[in-house]
Amino acid sequence: MQVLERFRRTVAFATLAFAAALPLAASAEYPDKPIKLIVPWPAGGGSDVVARQVAQPLGEKLKQAVVIENRPGANGAIGSDVVARAAPDGYTLVWVTADTHAMNPHVYPKLAYDPRAATAIGMVGYFPYALIINPNFPANNIAEFVAQAKEKPGKVTFASWGIGGSSHVAMEMFRAQGKFDVLHVPYTGAAPAIQGVISGQVDSMIVPMSVAGPQQAGGKVRVLGLASPKRFAGAPALQTFAEQGVPVNAGTWVGLMGPPSMPSDIVAKLNTALNEVVNTPAMKEALIKLNVEPATQTPQEFRTFVDAEYERWGKTIREAKIRIE
Predict the structure, then answer these.
(1) CA 307 to chain CA centroid, nearest Å
(2) Among the three residues 192, 210, 244, which one is the final residue of a domain in this structure?
């Protein structure tokens, strides 16, 4: 009987040890199937193009395909919510921006997801934003634009791709810092808003350099300044707002996050692969050509950064009383 009991205990112990090792083994094998990357913006937009630039080499690093799925709507909230509800196994990730994880929670009081609960994986880079104006608007620099707005309070107009979007909130930050008043003309998307500036229906707009640069090169708009703390390598001659007397940091950023409570070893593996991809000379060059300033962070650094952005943009949104019920 004693021999039989010892045998049973040995089998039980071995079974428990095997079961305890299973999660570690599964984690070590990650990824063993394609990874879905939710881009909460329309296909072909600036954020989507950058996501596709990064996804393929990231998949090659991880030895599994990174498949992009576009889930646009509600300023990125719809796709972000899909990921917030997904299993935290590393197979469903989200391409995040300042809009989705720093601005939306303040704009939408009934937002379905909590961006502060998302698992931070890593940053890809910054989208520098610039002020564009219709070529006929009488201003050649930021100081002259501010002077026009102060001379005609509420008469100078600016477009955005929607209430509470980064193009709207960025101009509110500029307006507060420059102490002037302008009239907001929201459109239902970036393309019609930019066309509004080109046609002269609206005087101005703050947009990513990925939009501003090509439109200026085609003579359709004029770019007055960069709403970033420093000049952008892709347009080194363009002065910042701060250099022209109005310090404004209104650019957005892009990175990777996942559902809440992802395992730390999976996060570390994704972060290492992402940083290796972004830091290659070829990718840095490609991102700058797409008007993105490359930047990488650890998961902890990215979490701290996003939390700070949440507070920074929230202050502007509250002061401007931007809310969508």
Answers:
(1) 13
(2) 244
Among 305, 124, 127, which residue's Cα sits nearest to residue 232? Answer: 127
Residue type (1 letter), 239:
Q
Domain boundary among 217, 244, 271: 244
Same domain, 179 and 35: no
**Secondary structure of the chain in the HEC alphabet?**
CHHHHHHHHHHHHHHHHHHHHHHHHHHHCCCCCCEEEEECCCCCCHHHHHHHHHHHHHHHHHCCCEEEEECCCHHHHHHHHHHHCCCCCCCEEEEEEHHHHHHHHHHCCCCCCCHHHCEEEEEEEEECEEEEECCCCCCCCHHHHHHHHHHCCCCCEEEECCCCCHHHHHHHHHHHHHCCCCEEEECCCHHHHHHHHHHCCCCEEEEEHHHHHHHHHCCCCEEEEECCCCCCCCCCCCCECHHHCCCCCCCEEEEEEECCCCCHHHHHHHHHHHHHHHCCHHHHHHHHHCCCEECCCCHHHHHHHHHHHHHHHHHHHHHHCCCCC
Q: Look up the pTM and report it.
A: 0.85
Render pLDDT for 289-311 as a digit per residue (tens, 0 to 9): 999 999 999 999 999 999 999 99
Q: Which residues 6+ apart lie within 8 Å of 101 measured at CB?
A: 80, 115, 118, 257, 306, 309, 310
Q: What is the pLDDT of residues 44-79, one digit of tens each?
A: 888 899 999 999 999 999 999 999 999 998 889 999
Amino acid at 270: L
CA 301 to chain centre: 15
CA distance 188 to 190: 7
Q: Are residues 90 and 237 in the same domain?
A: no
Domain that holds residue 108: 31-127+252-320
